[in-house]
């Protein structure tokens, strides 16, 4: 090797190309990592919303049924897509739980219907089955499907779950003589 007295500093073209490829690969891995994390966060949000809305709606319906005096619709051994029951409040018309445009609603007497689910979810396949027996206060089996509202059709937001519950009406309290 001949020493010309010049000090070579900098990178050769091959070194520069190698460093550029390594940096691009590292940035690509970081981007994929953040994309996966973001998709998981979105999916978990959809799952959480469906779980919370479905469980809360079932809690309200079962609590209402346990406090009911009698179930009007469905009759014993029958199915219905809405539930009509009478509570212990004397003089009030029947209460109704039904589905309207994918929103689960509760209407107490003459009052306006109250939504039990919000617009983030859609309820479908609502079914009430009266599984009570003669001589008992009665029991209602509730079934429904709750899906995350996904107008964009993205797979990240696609989630639905079936919810089931059975609520037994409590017999009326009789005064102790």
- Structural class by helix and strand composition: alpha+beta
Task: Give the total of domains.
Answer: 1
Main β sheet profile:
5 strands, antiparallel
The span between the termini is: 118 Å
The strand line-up of the biggest sheet is: 1-3-4-5-6
Topology, element by element:
Elements: H1 13-66, E1 68-73, E2 79-80, E3 83-87, E4 95-100, E5 103-107, E6 114-115, E7 121-130, E8 139-148, E9 160-168
Antiparallel strand pairs: 1-3, 2-7, 3-4, 4-5, 5-6, 7-8, 8-9
Which labels suit this protein?
five-stranded antiparallel sheet, four-stranded antiparallel sheet, 177 residues, alpha+beta
Describe the structure.
This protein is of the alpha+beta class and 177 residues long. The chain has 1 helix and 9 strands. The chain has a 5-stranded antiparallel beta sheet with strand order 1-3-4-5-6, with helices on one face. The protein is rod-shaped. It starts with 12 loop residues before the first helix and ends in a 9-residue tail after the last strand.
Characterize this entry briefly:
The protein has one helix at residues 13-66; strands at residues 68-73, 79-80, 83-87, 95-100, 103-107, 114-115, 121-130, 139-148, 160-168. The protein is of the alpha+beta class and 177 residues long.
